[in-house]
Amino acid sequence: SEEEGVFYVGCAGGRDTSIRLPVARAPLPAGHVAVRVDVKGLRGGHSGLDIVLNRGNALRLVARTVSAAADAMPLRLVAIEGGDKLNAIPREAWAKVAVPAASVAALEGICAAQLAGFRTEFASAEPELSLTAAREGEAPADAMDEASTRTALALVLGLPHGVLAMSRDLPGLVETSSNVARVRTEASAVAILTSSRSSNASALDGVIGQ
C-alpha cells in the first residue's frame, strides 16, 4: 500500500460487455414537441473502489424518470446518452423525448416529483443531484416506436448495477459488482457498455449470464 509496513493482498477479475439493442423508428404524429431530460451533479467515482458507496448512476436515474413519464402519457424516446469510461460510474446523462405539446406541463411535473424522490433516496450520497426538463422546440421527424421506447428503457434499468454480493469471508469486502457505464443512441440501435467485477470466477460468470 502507500503506507510503510502495510500490505494489500487481493484479486478481482473483470469483464466488459457490449450490447447493441436494435430499435425501430416511426414518424411522429403532428403536434409533438421535443423535451430534453437531464440528470447532472452526481459524484460518480471509480466503478471498483467507489461502487460500495451506493452513489447514483445518472443513466439509471434518467431512464427511471422517462419510464415514469411513459406510464402517464404518450411518449416516444428519441435518444438516450450518458457515461464515458467503462470504469467510471456515470455522473451525467440525458434523454430526448417527444410528447404531445399539451403534455409538456405534465412531464415537467413528473420530473419534479422524480427529483424530490431521488433527493430523498440519495440524500447524503448525492447532495448536488439535479434533474431538469427543457423544451427544445418541434419534435424531429421520427422517434423510436412505442415498443422500442419501452424495451430500451427496460434494458437500461434491468441490467445489473451496483454491489451484487459481499464477501462471505471478509466483512466489508465487495465480492461482485457491476456498472452500467455508457449508453449511446445510434441510427437504428441503442449501444450499452457495462463493466462487471468479481473475486469469484463463478459469480462473475453468473453476472454475465444474466
Could you give the distance between the termini?
35 Å
Strand content: 35-45%
Give the assembly state of these chains. single chain
Please state the structural category.
alpha+beta
How big is the Rg? 19 Å
Give your account of this protein's structure.
The mean pLDDT is 95. Strands 1-10-9-8 form a 4-stranded antiparallel sheet. Strands 4-5-3-6 form a 4-stranded antiparallel sheet. Strands 2-7 form a two-stranded antiparallel sheet. The protein is of the alpha+beta class and 210 residues long. It contains 4 helices and 10 strands.
Task: Write out key terms for the chains shown.
single chain, 210 residues, alpha+beta, four-stranded antiparallel β-sheet
Quick structural gist:
The protein is an alpha+beta fold and 210 residues long. The chain has four helices and ten strands.
Summarize the topology.
Elements: E1 13-22, E2 25-27, E3 32-40, H1 58-70, E4 76-82, E5 93-100, H2 104-121, E6 130-138, E7 142-144, H3 146-158, E8 162-166, E9 174-185, E10 189-198, H4 201-209
Antiparallel strand pairs: 1-10, 2-7, 3-5, 3-6, 4-5, 8-9, 9-10
Helix pairs in contact: 1-2, 1-3
